[in-house]
Amino acid sequence: MVAVAIVKIRNLFAVTMLTGIYSLLAASLFVVLDAVDVALTEAAVGAGIMIILMLGTLALTTSKEKVHGKGQNLLALVVVFVTGAGLIYGTLDMPSFGDPEAPAHTHLSPHFTQESVDEIGIPNMVTSVLASYRGIDTLGEAVVIYAAAVGVLLVLGSGAVRRRRKDGHVDDRGEEQS
Questions:
Q1: Pick from 176, 178, 153: nearest CA to 61
Q2: What is the pTM of this model?
Q3: Which CA distances in Å does 71 have to 74, 79, 164?
Q4: Where are the transmembrane segments (predicted)?
Q5: Which of 43, 131, 161, 172 has its CA 20 to 30 A from that of 124?
């Protein structure tokens, strides 16, 4: 319901606030699924840092969404449906949720709990998994977060948005004027 409201509303400030609510709901869902580390990251990045960056962007631009033609909306809808169908197709051969015979429970978990101290030398099992076994994955996540931050800083710091608004080339609806 929150996602539908995000799509329908044209006021970008309201969309920003609803996005924060959606992130908190997603974090709650991750807690229910016993993924507390992911929930903490979602709450901090999704409901915290992202909202601050979006509000900063709104302060430099306008609060109204630019309305696009129907052809662009249709193309976007097709891309979303194709991507969603591909993602759903990719999950069809996954084991059922909580299946005790899933490979993660029969092969990975016993190995991590029994061998991590000997293989890695770190007594904390969570730290050994995140820092060593999943080290490349954790590094990739950090690179994505830093790349996003650099991209936002480059866009906001370029001054082009501020110059257009200062010169009066952007109206209250977010549309460029000639």
A1: 176
A2: 0.53
A3: 5, 13, 27
A4: 12-33, 39-62, 74-92, 143-161
A5: 43
